[in-house]
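Incident review: delayed structure delivery

Summary: a single-chain prediction request sat in the queue longer than the usual turnaround. Root cause was a stuck worker, restarted by the on-call engineer. No data loss occurred. The affected request and its eventual output are reproduced below so the record is complete for anyone auditing the incident later.

Affected input:
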Amino acid sequence: MEQTAMGRGAGREVQLAPHELIVTKTDPSGHITYANRVFMRVAGYAEHQLLGKPHNLIRHPDMPRGAYRLMWQTLQAGHEFFALVKNATVDGNYYWVLANVTPDYDPQGRLQGYYSVRRPPSRGAIAAIEPIYAEMRKIEAGQGKASAPDTSRDWLLALLAEKGCSYQDFILGLNADVLKAKGVAG
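Output delivered after worker restart:
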């Protein structure tokens, strides 16, 4: 029986090298159709263990479901999505990424799937998002399973509205130094 990311222990952090990028592609339902070698090495999966599997195979239990609800709503509206994500490896370790997920359309405008490019986030960004995600998980634990992701997403959006920014602007702001050093931001 294959081990899945859900329900494993905390493990140790695996860090991407500053120059490394993780790249994956999925079909419209989120099943992996491509994974680069960096992803396979970091997550600890062989290609045959990934292709055709749901991308949430690497979901870490520390990630609030509300963050994924926000991601899917953004993507289904046709917009790209930036997030800080804690993923699980096959052996129970974890790694943080600054993820950029983009819808992929054919020439006729039909959704073909999603591209995701992930890079190492700043340590300060991780430190800033961890208490926010912890509060979202706490909110989710006090809710019914069906309503929990919406409730924690709404809390997150209200928190950021108080700060006068969107989730994407917040995430990009936390990582501005990393992106500027990579030549991604001006």
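Verification: The first strand starts at residue 22 and ends at 26.
Action items: add queue-age alerting; document worker restart procedure.
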